[in-house]
Specification:
- The complex is a heterodimer of chains A (181) and B (155).
- Chain A has 3 helices and 8 strands, in the order αβββαββββαβ.
- Chain A is α+β, with helices and mostly antiparallel strands and 181 residues long.
- Chain A has an 8-stranded antiparallel beta barrel with strand order 1-2-3-4-5-6-7-8.
- In chain A, a hairpin with a 4-residue loop joins strand 2 and strand 3.
- In chain B, strands 1-2-6-7-5-4-3 form a 7-stranded mixed beta sheet.
- In chain B, strand 6 and strand 7 form a beta hairpin.
- In chain B, helix 2 packs across helix 3.
- The relative contact order of chain B is 0.17.
- Classes of the chains: A alpha+beta (181), B alpha/beta (155).
Chain lengths: 181, 155
């Protein structure tokens, strides 16, 4: 009985450490659409949900549009409004993709690995394929990842006078970071 | 001096003053918007005070109604801390999880209250005030996530 208990405990512990799918509900997604004319259009969301499958390399992110925190209330209202993100209709940003060069990462060995991720970014109901560089760090079974990329607002049907007037960057910079468990 | 020139001179001064006032007005309005900040949540009055698990159940029962009722409002939530997750070294997110469904409330703290979350432990009975950002259904987790921003401990 004791041996069985020890065996089951071992399975549970190693299963936890080496589980294929690692998730978090505290990933950070930040974007910066500020310009020399306007420093306000930037925000971050620290409650994004993310998963990485260490066997298949599948990576997914979901972020509530309404939980992007701006420093300015008016800009935050505009961002969520019908003309911009229309967050009532499209409440989340998603990314579904995979690590393109999974052989570069050894999830069982501590280290920092530079990789590339390709997948579908969906904003305001429009999906586009993007490829972004990313850095994966493995430390004692913990996996963390960061990525930085930009995209064209027009590709997702986001247009308007503030963009043409140079108050909002045409290609905002996006930074994603996650510590998976 | 002709009549027309005299009339033009009579209107010139008010027009210049009017134009100047319009420019000043636009500049003041722009300055007001550009420097506007969110109020400290700890000083805001909550629109609703609810129990964490009851709130999750309300969103699961009818997310449309719950989103209309709570989204964009300051809510005080009372409950037991289920999880703490650190998005970075400066803060932690505080979660209340309904263990029967896996659905959860997730609070990100207001800048001046970042340290408050770090002082909490799993199992602590707390009261947190925050601006409700509504719910999303997570395809990754198969659960409902209800998020809050600009949170502060309700002292």
């Amino acid at each position: 009985m004791k041996k069985l208990f020890l065996f089951l405990s071992f399975i549970a512990i190693t299963g936890g450490i080496f589980a294929q799918k690692k998730t978090t509900t505290a990933a950070t997604v930040a974007f910066d659409a500020s310009t020399s004319v306007d420093a306000l259009p930037k925000a971050e969301n620290k409650t994004a949900i993310a998963v990485i499958d260490t066997k298949t390399g599948v990576v997914q992110f979901e972020a509530s549009v309404k939980n992007f925190a701006f420093s300015n209330p008016t800009i935050q209202n505009h961002f969520n409004g019908e003309k911009w993100m229309n967050s009532d209709m499209h409440p989340k940003f998603t990314f579904k993709g995979a690590v393109t060069d999974l052989t570069k990462v050894n999830f069982e060995k501590n280290g920092t690995y530079t990789i590339s991720v390709t997948g579908e970014l969906t904003i305001k109901g429009v999906s586009k394929t993007i490829t972004a560089p990313a850095t994966v760090s493995v430390n004692g079974g913990m996996v963390s990842a960061t990525s930085e990329f930009s995209f064209k607002l027009a590709d997702f049907g986001i247009t308007g006078v503030p963009i043409d007037a140079g108050k909002v960057a045409k290609e905002p910079k996006v930074t994603v970071s996650a510590e998976f468990k | 001096m002709s009549n027309t020139t005299a009339k033009r001179k009579r209107w010139k001064k008010p027009l210049i003053i009017g134009g100047f006032l319009v420019v000043i007005g636009v500049a003041v309005a722009y300055w007001f918007v550009a420097t506007e900040k969110f109020a400290d949540t700890s000083n805001r009055k909550a629109a609703h005070t609810v129990n964490a698990i009851d709130l999750i159940k309300e969103f699961i029962a009818n997310d449309s109604l719950a989103n209309k009722k709570y989204t964009g409002k300051i809510i005080t939530v009372n409950g037991t801390v289920s999880e703490l997750e650190a998005p970075d070294s400066t803060t932690v997110n505080v979660k209340f999880v309904d263990t029967t469904t896996g659905s959860f409330l997730n609070f990100q703290f207001q800048e001046q209250h970042l340290a408050e979350g770090k002082g909490l432990k799993v199992g602590d009975s707390v009261s947190i005030k925050g601006s409700c950002s509504g719910s999303i259904y997570s395809d990754i987790l198969g659960t409902t996530s209800i998020s809050f921003q600009r949170a502060a401990l309700n002292k």
